Each structure stands twice: as structure tokens, then as C-alpha cells.
Amino acid sequence: MSNAAPIGVFDSGVGGLSVLHEIRARLPDESLLYVADSGHVPYGEKSPEFIRERSQRITEFLLGQGAKALVLACNTATAAAVADLRERYPDLPIVGMEPAVKPAAAATRSGVVGVLATTGTLKSAKFAALLDRFASDVRVVTQPCPGLVEQIEAGELDTPRTRELLQGWVAPLLAEGCDTLILGCTHYPFIKPLLRELVPEQVRLVDTGPAVARQLQNLLDQRELRAESGSAVATRLWSSGDVQQLQRVLPVLWSEMVEVLALST
Fold first, then answer.
1. 74 tagged catalytic
2. 67 neighbors 2 (Cβ within 8 angstroms)
3. Is residue 245 part of a domain?
């Protein structure tokens, strides 16, 4: 595998672009491929079998584009599919996502941690295992957020409807005494500015994007796959959903000018 080969990243929609930002910041010389599976968003409401099938198809597509490593920039896809993908592609560096339970448990002062996530993530065995492993000494209060992914997909990061939804989900977590909130979906970092208006200043917001970028860097270093300085080419982006819609909202979510291509797989 050439060191100049790109890194493939995918999510159920645009949320993984928040992870792509972290990868670009940490690994500026790497070329990036991104698939938004917006035709099937949100994964959180789909069956594990469906998510595994979509993840397999998208992985095959990204490998066909020459990807040297894979990032599942989606908590739900990671819970459902990462083990299967690692078994199928044992030589491929693969990085998944998981809610930041460990750092949140370490950071809380009140002993109460809130989790904003999709229904699929909260119901997953992987999330339950995280709680058992890292949150035995704290109380974790979970809050599913149906509809929030769709608001972010539409680029509605600070509209009255998004604000109303988020306020309704955050209020009970604050009432329980949460001083740390886990953003358990890669879409949610895009509404951090709005969240900061809705929660007290001392409440910490935790997401996993920076840790994923660090882990990707570690894997590339271990396998001597880091790109040379200055070798990055323009990011390439595909969507299985409404290409024109994503093209409209992309300037709000991504810093580079990119043409969105249609994904037919």
C-alpha cells in the first residue's frame, strides 16, 4: 500500500465531517475520502444487520478508491459492524468510534454524567460494555435524541426547532445533576455552540473526534503508512442521499470547497 494512498471515512450522514475536521487538523498531509450514507440516515433507527450490510458495501467502495485505512466515523456503525470489518480485512487499519464514557467518568465532579446519543447507540451491547468497564463509580443518565440527526443533516444547527428539541433533552439531564455531557453521535459536535448556550458554563462537553484522530495517527505510524509532507490532495466526498442538499449545507460543515458526488452502492 502506497503511503500517498487516501484515508477512507464514512458515517450515516454528514456527522462524520466533525471527525474529518479532527483528522485534517492532526494529519494535514493525508488525502481524505468521505462517504455520507445520507440515503439511509439515521443509522440509529436501523437494525444491526442493515448497518453491517451498509458498512460492508461502503468499505468495499472506499477500498476500490484506494483507501489505505478506514475510519467508521459513527458510533452506531462501530457498535454494529467494526468487529465484522476487522475480521474481513485483518490487514486494514480500522478505527471506530465509541461514546467518550472513560474521559467523562474521569472528568465529572458531581458523579453524574449525561449522554446525548441515538437510540441505536444507547441500546447497543458495546455501549453497555463501556458503562460496565468505565462508569462503575459514576451515575450515567442517558437521553436519546430522535430527530436531531435530521436537523443537522439539513444544516439547521441553530434554528428555533433545533433549539426546542435540544432544550427538551438537556433539561432533564441538568435536573439530575449532570456536570459532564457526552456527545454520543458524530453529528452532535456541530451543535456545540448551541449547547453552550443551553447549559451552564461549568458543564463539560465531551466528544470522541480528537481521540479517533490520535488513534488513526498511531496506526499509520505503526504500519509506516504516514503520507509525506505536502502530499495531500483535495478531499473527495460522496453521498447516497440528496447530493444537491448536501452541497448546500456543506459550507456550514466543512472548510474546503468540495464537489459532492453521487454514491450508487
1. yes
2. no
3. yes
